[in-house]
Amino acid sequence: MTAEHSAEFLTPGSAAYEAHLREEIEHYGQIYESEAARETLMQPVPTAWNWVEARAAEAVRQATGNDVLGHLIDALRRRPGLRLLSLGSGPGGIEIEAIRNAPAASGLCLDINTELLHLGQERAATLGLQLLFEAADLNTLALPAAAFDVVLCHASLHHVIELEHLAAQISRALTADGVFLTVDVVTRNGYLMWPETRQVVANIWKMLPARYRLNHTAYRAPLIDDEIWEADTSASGMECARSEDILPIIDERFVAVQYVPYFSLCRRFFDTMYGPNYDLASPLDKAIVNWVWELDRYHLATGRLRPETFFGIYRPRR
Question: I need a labelling partner for 260 at 20 to 30 A (CA). Which of 66, 140, 224, 313 fits?
Fold first, then answer.
């Protein structure tokens, strides 16, 4: 996307930008108020979402030889003293696990949310890890040249507005043999569906009994949706502000070593909004989850639908 076109989005430093930033910080602060989130340093998700995430991890493993965490650990074990930079780390659940398994490496986690950074720093200190947590705005970040061997963006790019700037900074910050690992959401901006996705989702939605259409997040109390909920999430906060631009911008700056697309449909049925409706101990619930997963894979394989998530390992174009 050109700088001219990016004027459609919030401008860092503006009053509107600061308001969205406060909403974003408050939202994730509330998520990590729960005991489960503070224990795992990961956002709590429904069992159905964990199940499809596990299937996705296996798909990544089959395509590339390892899952996301495994690739990160391997990258940090290449030789002693490697340095990790994680951008938009939150409390650093995956980063802490990686450094625990690659203790000769060290790392720096950057995020805008100081409360979450504090959670991560406390855990890292308790475990004696070489992992620091510092506050930074990814939209205005300036990174030192050739300072990091691995840069990780784990579900953080879809919160960034100045993607071109950040991509340039990541490329600059990587060493000559450094790698950029990322997992992210690549829906239409605002977490909207592509038209062809919306058509398939709407057809499935019509077949689902009411109990699977109970919306747990969009209203003050759960309500049944006659049509699947879809609204622009970037209207407040930063969620999916420029999610559709992530892959084109990465491809301009980086060369893919590994690229695995997934979730053409599953996000719409099994995340925190509708995922709590599925009990995997119920044969019908498990059958629906499995069917949607298989349909998801079919539509990706045939090219009818675009992915809404991807995993990639990249090297900068020099």
Answer: 140
Contact 145, 85 (CB under 8 A): no
Q: How far is CA 197 from the centre of its chain?
A: 20
Query: What is d(CA 145, CA 178) in angstroms, rounded to the nearest whole number?
Result: 12
Residue 218 CA neighbour count, 13 Å, CB half: 16
Residue type, 78: R
Which amino acid, 118? Answer: H
Residue 43 vs residues 39, 97, 258, 290, 302: alpha-carbon distances, Å = 10, 15, 26, 23, 32
As a whole number of angstroms, the distance between CA 277 and CA 255 comes to 40
Is 90 exceeded by the pLDDT of residue 3?
no
In CATH terms, the superfamily for domain 5-316 is Vaccinia Virus protein VP39 (3.40.50.150)
The full set of domain ranges for the chain reads 5-316
Structure tokens at 281: 């101990």
- How many Cβ atoms are within 10 Å of 253's Cβ, its own excluded? 18
pTM: 0.95
